[in-house]
Every structure is written in structure tokens, then in C-alpha cells.
Specification:
By secondary structure, this protein is mostly helical. The protein is 66% helix and 0% strand. The chain starts with a helix and ends in a 19-residue tail after the last helix.
């Protein structure tokens, strides 16, 4: 199948309303390298529904890649990081969210790259200044906090989240508060157990 045909098929799957497991099953039958290119393109799409479906699909697709070829998955992670670099010439739409989703679905990638996600909050790190990217970052931190809260705590996420509660952007504030609540709850001896089957919520808020 040509790259053009694969991209068209991926877009068709993402714009539909089929359950994510069915979409992932269909994507698995396509050339993975072409699927990844199509998913990256979809992260920048003007259709919000399509963008979020691309985020949701990126995690399992990259996790499956990592199981077979960890170095190839690392290349994908570095591509997310590069897209958020000023020198890339782009903006990195969807990169924090998609990166976090990959860390949710693969333990080794989470161990290696969770500190990068945290560093996007830090002015002495890879700070993301643009509020829309901060919205995505706060969502990503909340998503990862649902599944791997102790890992984020070990990377000092609790130290860097509070300033975002004073952001002039209400979405950033709300999502930062959600992530902070999850991380604090993870430290409580009476908090419920966290599993790897967390549901994606609050995408549009």
C-alpha cells in the first residue's frame, strides 16, 4: 500500500466512531512506519476529534513498536521532543499529549522519558512557554498521573506543578489542578490502586 493510501485509510479510521480497540486492530494491519507518519500528521489536523483519536492511537502503536524495536520507539520519542524545540520551525501540536500517551502504554519508555515530560514544566529545562502547548502538557501529566503517579513523583513533578495553578489560562489551571490532585492522592495510604487501564478524560476541557 502506498503512503498516500495508508494516510487516507488512517484518517478514515480516526474520523469514524468505531471503538479504539477496533481502530487499533485495523491500524495493526497497515505498514507501521506509514501509520506513524499518518498519526503525526493527524496531530496537527484542524479537526479536534481526529487529533484526539490520533493521540489515543499513538500510545498503543508506539508501545507495540517498542516491544519489537525499542530504539525505533526512542526515535519517535525524540521526534516529539524535536517538534517542541524552537529550532524545529514547528509548534509541536499534540506532541506533549501523544508523548504522555506513549509513556502510559510502555513502562520502559516511561522510565526513560518521564523526566523529559516533567522538564517541559521547568524554566531551567525544556520549558514550554506557549499556553496552548502548556494545556497539552498539563493534560499529559494528568494522564500519566492516572497510571504512573509514583514515577512522576520521583521526577519531582509535585515541585513544578503548583505555579501552573496561577496560570492566566483557565484550561492550564484546571488541568494542572487535576494532575496535582492525582499525584497527591497517590501518596495517601487510603487512595485507590492505580492500574494501567485508566480512561482518557477531560480532552476538551
Amino acid at each position: 500500500m502506498s503512503l498516500r493510501a495508508t494516510k487516507a485509510r488512517v484518517i478514515s479510521l480516526l474520523t469514524g466512531n468505531d471503538p479504539l480497540p477496533e481502530v487499533l486492530g485495523a491500524l495493526a494491519a497497515l505498514p507501521r512506519s506509514q501509520v506513524l507518519k499518518a498519526l503525526f500528521a493527524a496531530l496537527c489536523h484542524h479537526d479536534q476529534h481526529l487529533r484526539w483519536r490520533a493521540v489515543s492511537a499513538m500510545g498503543p502503536v508506539v508501545a507495540a513498536l517498542a516491544d519489537q524495536d525499542l530504539e525505533a520507539a526512542r526515535v519517535v520519542m525524540r521526534r516529539f521532543m524535536w517538534s517542541l524545540n524552537d529550532e524545529s520551525g514547528g509548534i509541536g501540536w499534540g506532541a506533549p499529549e501523544a508523548m504522555a500517551e506513549c509513556l502510559v502504554h510502555h513502562e520502559q519508555l516511561a522510565e526513560e522519558y518521564s523526566h523529559i515530560l516533567v522538564s517541559f514544566m521547568r524554566e531551567d529545562g525544556f520549558y514550554l512557554e506557549y499556553p496552548p502547548l502548556q494545556q497539552g502538557l498539563m493534560w499529559g501529566l494528568g494522564r500519566l498521573a492516572e497510571v504512573r503517579p509514583q514515577l512522576l513523583r520521583s521526577k519531582n513533578a509535585l515541585l513544578y506543578l503548583p505555579p501552573y495553578l496561577d496560570s492566566p489560562d483557565p484550561v492550564v489551571r484546571r488541568r494542572a489542578a487535576h494532575a496535582l490532585e492525582l499525584l497527591k492522592a497517590a501518596a495517601s495510604p487510603v487512595s485507590p490502586a492505580f492500574t494501567g487501564n485508566a480512561k482518557i478524560v477531560d480532552k476538551k476541557s
